Amino acid sequence: xxxxxxxxxxxxxxxxYGGFTAVDGIDLEVRRGEAFGVLGANGAGKSSTMRMIACxxxxxxxxxxxxxxxSATDGAAIRARLGVxxxxxxxxxxxxxxxxxxxxxxxFGLSWKVLRERSARLLEFARLEDKAGDAVGTLSGGxxxxxxxxxxxxxxxxxxxxxxxxxxxxxxxxxxxxERLHRLKQDGVTLLLTTHYMDEAEQLCDRLVVMDAGRIxxxxxxxxxxxxxxxxxxxxxxxxxxxxxVMIDKCRxxxxxxxxxxxxxxLYTDDGEETLAAVNARGVRPRTALxxxxxxxxxxxxxxxxxxxx
Amino acid sequence: MGTSAPAFRxxxxxxxxxxxxxxxxxxxxxxxxxxxxxxxxxxxxxxxxRDGALHGESYLRFILPGMLVAAVMQTAFLExxxxxxxxxxxxxxxxxxxxTPLSPExxxxxxxxxxxxxxxxNAVLFTGVSVVFGAVDPARAPLLVPIALLxxxxxxxxxxxxxxxxTRPSQISAVFRFAVLPLYMFSGTFFPVxxxxxxxxxLAWATPLWHGVDLGRAVALGTATPFRVLVHVGYLTAMxxxxxxxARRNYRRxxxx
Lengths: 310, 257
What we know:
The complex is a heterodimer. Chain A is of the alpha/beta class. Chain A contains eleven helices and 14 strands. A six-stranded mixed sheet of chain A has the order 6-7-8-3-9-10, with helices on both faces. In chain A, strand 9 (207-212) and strand 10 (215-220) form a beta hairpin. Chain B is mainly alpha-helical. The longest helix of chain B is centred in the first third of the chain and has 30 residues, at 59-88. Chain B is globular and about 60 Å long. The mean pLDDT of chain B is 91. Chains A and B meet through helix 2 and helix 3 of A and helix 1 and helix 4 of B.
C-alpha cells in the first residue's frame, strides 16, 4: 500500500454519557493494512470507541482523525470510506439477500450498474451465491454475519470496523468468517475489530490494545503482550470441591503468581514441569493437571484481575 | 444516475420497499373512500339530509372533505409512528443508514418525502373516487390534494419526532387509540362542530384536525374566506415546522449517541 494518512489516529479520546465515562482518554494509532484488535470485557468501552470511530457518536473530548480527516467535521466523508459491521444485525428481513446489498449500496450513491456487478462479487466472497434470491429470514447466524460483512464492503471501504464479529456463532462458522477476514486483509483493507475472544484476537490481530473501565491497560502484538505481562507457561489445576481450599492453600508460594478462578487454579511459571513436581512434592493431589503456554487470556487476567467471558 | 442528494437515497430505500406492497395499498386507498361514501353518504346521509342542518348542502358533500383529511391524518400517523420505531429498533434500517454518508437529518427528510408522496397518492385516489360519486365539485377537487399534503406533514413530523424515542410498540397503539381516534370523532369530521355543547367547542377548535377538516370543507364547498384559510394554513404549517424541528433534534440524539 502506498503511504497515505494514518487510517485511525486518536489522542485523549473520551466519551461520557451524562456523568458516566465510557471511554477515558485513550490514544490509538491504527496503521494501514493491519488488523488491529480492541480487547475487553463487556462494558470496557469497546463499543463506544467503535461508534466514535464509525462517526455515529460525537467525541466528548480529545481528537480523532480518520483517513486524515477530523471526525467532528467530516463525518459524512469519512463514513463514505468505512465499512461497518455492527454487533447487532441491521439486515432488512423483508428483503432478499441480494436486495439487502443493492439497497445498502444506494446509500453510498452508487449506480445500479455498479451495484449489480459488486453484489455478484460480494455474494461469492460471502459464499451466499445460492442464497441470493432468498429472504434473509431463512439464513443461519453465520450466513447473516457474512451478509453483514459483504454489505459493509459494498462501497469498497479502506477501513472495516467489526464489533464482536463472531459472537454467538458456532466454531465452524467462526473459522469460515476468520478465513474471509484474512482474505480482506491480504487485499490491503485495514481492519479494526473488538472481541472478547482471545483465540480470535490471536488468530486475526497484528496488534491490539486491552481495555478495562474505559482505559487502555496494555498494547502491543499478541506475542509482546504475552512476553511482557505473563510468564512463559501456566500450570492449570482442578480439584475436588471438598478439598479445594486446602489444596489451594498448600500451593501458595510455588509460582511467581497464582490466580484462583471458580473452577481452576492457575500457576504462572516459566517451567510448568518443575512447578508440577513441586506441587506433587507438597502432597497436593489435583484431579487434573495441565501445562500449557501462556495466552492472551492470561494477559487479560493479569492486567484486570478477571476473566473476559463470565 | 450516479450520486444523488443523500435525503433522496433514504427516499429510495422506502420506495424500494414499497414496490412489494404498493398494489395492496392502492386497493385500500380506493376501497376506503368507497366504503365511507356508500355507508355514510348514501345511507346515513339520506337520514341527515331531511332536517336541513347543513344549510342546503348534502351530507355527502359535507363529510367528504372531512373524511379525506381524517384518512390522510390517520395514514400519516400510522406510517410515521410504527415504521420509525421499527427503523430504530428491530429492523434497524435507520441505524444501518446512519453508518453510511447520510446524516440523521438526511434520514428524516428522506422518510418525510416518502410520507408526503403517500399522502398525495392517497388524496388523489380519494378525491378521484369522490368526483365519480359526485361528492365533490370536480373543479375544486384538485385543491384538496395540497391540503391533504399539508395535513399529512403536520401530523407525520410530530409523530416521527416522538416515535424515534419510543421503545415499546404498545405506546404507539395507545396514542393511536386515545389521541388519534378521538380526534377523528370530535374535530368536525362527521358533523359541524357547532353541534357540540358550547363548552366543548373551543376544544374542538383547538385540535389540529379541525383546522384541516374546516379548511378542506371550506375549499370544497366554496365557502372559504382569506382569513379562515390563513388561520388554518398558519396553524398546520406551524405544527409541521415545530414537528420537524423537534424531529431533527430527536433523530440526531437517537442515531448519533
